[in-house]
Structure formats: structure tokens, C-alpha cells
Design goal:
Number of strands: 57
Helix content: under 10%
Radius of gyration: 30 Å
Oligomer: single chain
Distance between the termini: 46 Å
Amino acid sequence: MHFKSSLLATSAVLAAAFAATAHAQTASGTAAASSTTIEELVVTAEKRQQSLQDVPVAISAFTSEKRDLIGVNTIADMTNFTPGLEYNAQNDRNTLRGVGRNTNVHAAQGSVAQYSDGIYTSSTVEAGKTPLFVDRVEVLRGPQGTLYGRNSIGGAINIISKRPTDDWYAEVRGQYQNYNHSILEGAVSGPTPIPGVDFRFGANWEKQTEGWYKNTVPGQPDEGNVIDTKYVEGQLKFKFSDNFDGWMKLAWADWHNDGGGPGSRNSYSPAPFTNFEVANPPQVMNPGYACLPGSGVTNVVTAGGIPLSQACANPSSSDPRKFASDVPYQVKLTGTMIFASEWTYHFDNMDLKYIAGGTHYHYFLTGPQPVESAPIVSYTLPRVLPAGTLGATQTSTLVIPGGGPTVNPRYAFNYQEQENWISHEINLASTDKGPFQWIAGLYYYNEEYRQPVYTTLMDQPSLGLNISSLAGACAFTAGACPSLAGDNRIYDDRPHMQITSKAAFGQIDWQFTPQWKTTLGLRYTRDDMKGEESVRVLCFDASACGVAPELLGSNFVLDLTQVPTVVSGYPGFPGGIGTPGVSSNTVVDPATGFASRTYKDHWGATTGTFGLQWDPEPGTMAYFRYSRGYKSGGFRVGIDTTLGAAPETQPEHLDSFEVGLKKDFGRTLQANLAVFRYNYRNDQVPITIIPTGGGTALGQSIFFNIPKAISQGVELETTWQPIEHLQVLFNYSYLDAHITKGSGVVDPADPTAVAAGAKPLTTLTACSTLTAPGCDVFTGDLQRGQDLSGGHLPNAPKNKVAVNVNYTWDFAPGSLTGSVSYIWRDKQFGSIFDRSYYQAPSYDQWDARLSWKDRDNKYTVIAFVKNIFNDLGYEGGAAAARQAGFTPGYALGLPLSNPASAVAAPVNEGIASTYLLTPPRTFGVELQYRFF
């Protein structure tokens, strides 16, 4: 820490020294002045080419040259130099000024729209393509409800590809990093034999074989960015005539990753492994039960043959970069095709443009369920005979070690996304130089997706006795229980949804004096969503599902699909017809055992913008901007739901007020300042309602619409080039994103609201009986909803700082550029509850790179190191869950003479936090060679 402070101080001294040198050279002449002039950056943020300094919107732009210069290689790097932007690589979720995506349910939309070459995409991944493929990335902060519309309530990210060239160009790049990480890519572009047609072809292969996280289980792979990805794209540019031109791109991607990529391990939890028998809500046996002294468990088999003491200890408790798992993650992306096209006809004073494209992909993710559990693959339960089982002479519970069933608890999930979407936009825009500039257009988007997910007991040879009929659990199939599939799937959910969005928009810019311009834009959007969801839910060997396997003397399975407290929507029960968004009651297919329900609804809104722009002198622009943003409603389906009782969420609305100043101080200093305030309504936040009564109910996942929230802040982006060859970038942002109205929500990690900082609405009350509604059997008190006002919005750090200093030395053979970056990010919360267990700490990071470019610009060599001091950084706020479950009384030390010793008792092992980490220290070298 002392060394880092010294390095920061040294950088400040160097910058001051360079500034002093610049002051001494102020009269050095026109040539020197021009060499320190900040280059103009052209963007297309408002669907026409403009200087970034002339656009009255808060924008951060990253050209391919800038990314190479300061080391913006990933989306996470982009967040460092973009005020207000956060990105969670594990879940592919982004947040901008506190407004973002909080779930991967595709029936609920994102809040920051990504447009790759004008085509909407639900994923941020494309923004992370290398600079060889991407010309620039533009991050537009604030609602873009007029020109973009589709789910851009928080902002928009434009990804603009490098296009075919009229002249020949060819380049290859190779990179090697620690962790055996390599990147090989190349591109070629130029004219074709067909007059007026140019082409571009590029390919990328990225592979890493050593993980950032060390698996302590022998024979099991390390994880963390262990990837094998391929990407190929081809482009054609057409010049049909002086008035008509076109462009099209077709890309293919393929991932075969082992423990790397979106969805895979990128986090750690320092909490001890749990050792209760079954978790709450109950579904399967816990591997860690073999770690509980007194459990009577025998024949324990650990993964890799490690000692039981090692298997029962979580290595992450002492080292965040270590874990123990016997179920590896795998990430696959197959059949991916991405198409984009743009066709323009140029009239005398206007352009008619048609933009069309779409995407198809199939994504697979497999991994452990839960992520953190003891690596134990098999154990034998004891046989338990309650008092009196063998006759009147048996006066106490009898525990017979080795006499019960064998449990093989390795439990895994399989999650998939099968996506198809296509979009069309046609717009007509003015191109003359008059005081009126305008654009109008129509937009259509269609998406169809399936998002199946299931969990499975990987090694269990049989689920044992099916007690569903005995338990009367098949009321909706006339008492005849459907047969089991035999695939050991405990949870199996299969949503299939269709989404359409239609919009009409227009915007006018009127420069009514040489210094003043006003903007007015409107957009109407209509969103329709419909689909169906089918689910089957089982319970394996969990005593809370009716009987303990130790008492039964056998493994058992209970079908929970027809239990109304588990699956909603049956006639006469909540969640059926009459529930918002639900278009049918739940029905059970007697052949497959799946319960199904359909959904249908639509939403619409008028959004727009009004602005004033003042240009008092060249190099100075001030603006005021009001924008109205909207995000459609949706459904909480799939992933972790069981046909919930309240599946629909209402649309979000946001009113944004922003003032900004973009100022060039001479030719050497450029500063962009934005001050904003959002009035945010109905933020869609996922909440899981955890049943705490000890019965067979499972968790219900819903969206809670926060009635009112505010996001306000200040953002500063500066570029300073005080002397020739020296550039200093400094960014700072302050963000206050908090809830102003919202109450009644129960914290799933603290249902009775007793943790420090809790704001319960009622006094703490003991349960009259443990079966009373709302009783938390783990504490004996009633659940309490909380007042949310004052709490932070998730993933919204209050302060962010980023500094980059780069200097170029010129030599006869070429130039050498040194670049050092420092970033600091404030603490942030991963939930709407401001509690210590949801908080990720503040952190800082140092990066450095050294680039050599030859005089003829034929080749470049870059050496780099990121996270120099190997510090822990956090991609977002923490997640947390209460470690609660059930354990037989005899294993908890109850006297065997006590009848309760044979009954499962509630156990609370505290709250476990999970932290999303940034990469460890990485370093390497990159070679770029340009043939022509």
C-alpha cells in the first residue's frame, strides 16, 4: 500500500513537472502548438456524423486507437473510463447511472440498449470485441428514448465496426499473456474485381488454458476465463451509384469454454460450507451433511480422495482465488450468426436509410448447484428407528450407522438460451446545411426465444421410492401421478416467449440564432409479449417434503409439480386467469408431468426529448436536455421460477434533466461536464420470496417495482495535452442513486429484519405457533417487511476516478509510448437493501503499458501489465443468502429419548456473501503487423 501511494505521488509530480515545462514553452511557435492540439472525434450518436464536442449529450467514446493507447481491452476496462457505467462480466449485465439490468430473464428487458452497427442486441459482449474489429464504441448516458427507444431508458451503447476500405489493407495481431492466454487475429480489406464493391474479412481465435481460480480438488479443472473462442466476420460495401450505396456484415461465433466466459465462475464466497442435511427451501440432500459431527453418516467418499477435513473446509475463506468443486463449469455458444446491413439512397437534401439485421445463437451453461458446497460425492445415511418402532421395549430413538440409503449429492444445473431476433428501421434524415435538421423513422423488432433450465443429480443411480401417490400430490391429474422421466432432473423449466416492438419517431433541430439551437423529439413505442412456460419440480430425500429417508430406510422422491404452494395458477388458486399477464390457468400434462401456463400482455409509451444548446464561441457548447425514458413491462419466467403467483412486472418510466458544458480551453485542454437528475419510477428489481415456514413451499421469484427513486450526479471527463507528446486523461463521477419510496419487501437474507441497518415496518413479534402465516421457523419470529427509502440502487458506486498519463518519445526508427492508468471505485451494493452483507468494498487498480511503433507504421509491439499489485477488485455489489436448512434432531445433540430427535429441526448458519471479482494481475506482449 505504501508503494502504491508513492507511485501515485510520483505520477502527480511528473505531471506537474511536465506542466511546468509546458508553461515555459508557451511561445514555442505554431508547430509546437499544433502538436498539442486535441484531435476531433467524430461520432454518430444522433444518427448523423458530428463532432463529439457538438453533440448535446453526455458521451464517452473509445476509438480503436484510444483503446490500444490506454489498454481498453474488455468491457470492464471501458467502465473504468466511462462515468456511471458498471458491467458484471459473469452475468453479462450493465448499469448506467444506477439504471440497468438486474436479471438474465429475457422476458424482462435490459435498461441500457446495445446497438451493434445499428442493430439492437440484448448482450453487451459485442462491445468487448478487439480494436481490430471495432472502429469505436460510443456510450450515451441518459435516456435515448427518441432515436433509439428500445429499452434505452438508462442509455445506449453503440458499437461501430471497422468497414471495408477502398485501398488494400491487411494486418495480423498476436498476443500472449500469463495463464497461457493467447489471441491470434487478422483482417484483410480492399477492392473486389466487381467495380464499386469493397470487402473486409477478419478472424479471431482466443484461448486460455490456465484459470484465474485454483481448484483444490485433485483431478478437477481450474476455472476463471478458461476459454476457447472463435469469431469470423465478412463484410461487403457497395457503391451502386453516386446516390445509392450499401453495406452488409455476416459474422459467426463459437465458444467451447471450460470455466470461462459469461455465466462461469467469476466470484468467491468466504463463508464456511453448510452442514445441515437439506437447505431451505428443500429439494435435495446437502453434500456438506457428511461434515456434521454426530450425523451418523458413513461410507463418505470425497472428490479426488481428499481428506474429509479438507473437503469440509472452504478454501475461499482464506484465499479468494481458490475454490473446491467437483462439478466444473462449461460455457458453449454454437450456431451463432449475426447479420447487419445498411442501405442508403442520397437525395439532394436528405438521405433515406434502411437498417436491417438479426442474430441467432444457442448458448449453453453448466455448473454446480449451489456454486459453493463441500466436494463430497457419496455417503450413506444411518437407519433411524423412532421410539416404539421395535415394540414397547424400545424407549428411545435407535440410530443404526450404515443402515440407511446411500446419497450421491453431486448436483448440477444446465441453462440454455436459444435466441432469434431481427430488426428493421427505415429513416429519412436531412443532409443540407440549413438551420433546420430533422430525422423521422419507423422501427420494428421481433424476438423469439427459449430459455430452458434444469437441475440434475449427476450420480444418483435411482431416485428411489416415488411417494407422490401416497402423499396425495397428484390432485390435478385425477390422482394418477405421471411417471418420472428417469433423467434425475429435480427442477425443469421451459419458457418459450415471443416479443415484438414497433415504434415511430422523429426529431427536429432548429438553430434559430447563430449561437442557439433547440431540439425536439418524440417517439411512440408499442411492445407485445406472449408465450408459455412449462415446469416440473421434484423433491429428493428432503425430510421437509414429508418423510426423512433415515426413517423410510430408502431414497425417495416426491413430485411437487401439483402442489399449489410450489406451482401457482391452478383453478381456484392464485396465479391463474385474472392475474395480470396470465392468459390461462395452469394445467398438467398427464403424459409428461409438466405443468404449463400461458402469458400475454402489451405496453406502450410516448417518449421524447427537448433541448437547448448554446454555442457562445468556437470550442464552447452548453446545453440543457430533458428526456423521457421508458422500458416495457415483462414477466418473471424461467431460470429460478415455478410458475409464480405474480409473474408480471410493470413498465419503467424515467424523467431526466441534464445540463452540460463541453469546453476547449485553448488547444490543449478539453473538459466535458454533465450534471443530471433522474426521477425514476417502477424500477424492476428481482426479489425472491423465501418460504420460512418449514413446509414444502419453494421460493417465489418476482419483480418488485420500486415506486420512486432518484439518480443524480456530476460527471467530468478531461483531456489535457500540455506539451508535445504528453497526454493526461482524468475522469471523475459522483453518483447518488437511491430509493425515495418503497416498502413492504422482505430481505431474503434477513427475513425478520434484525440485521444492523434494517428498517422494519413493524415491531419484532414471536410466532404464536411455528405454523402461523409468515412465521420464520429459523428464528421463531414473524417475517417483517422493510422501508426501502434511502437505500442505494444496485451497482451504483457513489464515486469513481480514472487517470491515464501517456507520453511518447520520438526516435529515428520509430516512437515509444508509455502509458500508466489508475482507477478507484467506491463501495457499492448488490441489492436494494443497504446491508453490510450486500456491500462490495471500494478498490483501486494500477495498469501500465509500453508501445513501440516503427516509423513506417508497419508494426507495433505492446508490453502490458494490468492490476499491477494483484489487488481484489469488484465488478458490482455483493450477493447474499441466509444459510438456513434442516437437520435431524439426533444429529444436533437432542437426547435419543426425546421423540423430536428423529424429526428435522431448523438450523440457521448465518448469512453468506458472494463477491464478483475483477481479474488478477495479468501481463503479456502483443505484436501487430500491417502488410499494407
